[in-house]
Amino acid sequence: EDRIRESETLYRTLFDRSDEGLFLVDEVFVDCNDRAAKMFKCSRSEICGRTPADFSPEFQPDGRTSHDAARQYLAAAEAGTEQSFTWRHLRSDGEEIDTEVTLKKLMISGDAIILASVRDMSERIRMETALRDSLMKLNTLVSSAVDGIILVDRDGTIESVNPSAVIIFDADEQQLC
After folding, report:
1. Which of 151, 141, 139, 97 is nearest to 120 (CA)?
2. DSSP states of 52-68 as a string?
3. Tens digit of pLDDT per residue, the chain (177 long)?
4. Which residue, 59, 68, 95, 117, could crosslink 91 as a Cys pair with Cβ 3.0–4.6 Å?
5. For residue 32, which phi and psi values (nearest 5 degrees)?
6. Nearest one of 96, 100, 98 to 83, comparing CA atoms
7. How far is CA 129 from the centre of its chain?
8. Closest to 68 (Cα-Cα) out of 78, 56, 80, 79
């Protein structure tokens, strides 16, 4: 009994302290960790007994209904094929978040159950979008500058030039780079 109790304590500690949202799924959510509850902005009891589609908008970005897509991913995982995919979830307050999901089939005491690991990608996506926007602004600034701008690597090799540099040096970009 002590070993069983220690094993349960170890399982609970690992499950609850994960940096990712973890769910046990058997058609519906059977259990989840605190990170998952925080991710969805609700309590564990509000998650358990509900389906993944209940925490998703009607449609995923690929056009499929969340219900159909969730059933397909879960069926493949139940058949033993690990699934990794992006998914749009819906928090209890209605906010949509982009996530990365991994589904794995586990056998526990002879019963199959799906472990879903969910990582919130919203902040990363916001940062990537901001970086892309900044790069576009920088490219626009450099390409519209009146002065010739030449980008040179550490070895002195010209990597790129703006249109003004091409005019100033009376050469095409390929000749300069």
Report:
1. 97
2. GGGGS-SB-TTSSBHHH
3. 788 788 787 777 788 888 899 999 998 999 999 999 999 999 999 999 999 889 999 999 999 999 999 999 999 999 999 999 999 999 999 999 999 999 999 988 888 999 999 999 988 888 998 999 999 999 999 999 999 999 999 999 998 999 999 999 888 877 777
4. 95
5. -155, 165
6. 100
7. 14
8. 56
Q: Hey, what are 100's tokens? A: 């990365």
Residue type, 99: T
Q: Which helix (H) or strand (E) holds 77?
A: helix 66-78
Q: Report the Cα 169 to chain-centroid distance in Å.
A: 46
Return the closest-CA partner of residue 117 out of 95, 85, 143, 94.
85
Amino acid at residue number 123? E
Please name the amino acid found at residue 22.
L
How far is residue 128's CA from residue 33's CA, in Å, rounded to a whole number? Answer: 28
User: Residue 143: CB partners within 8 Å, gap ≥ 6?
Assistant: 162, 163
Contact indicator for 174, 158 with CB cutoff of 8 Å: no
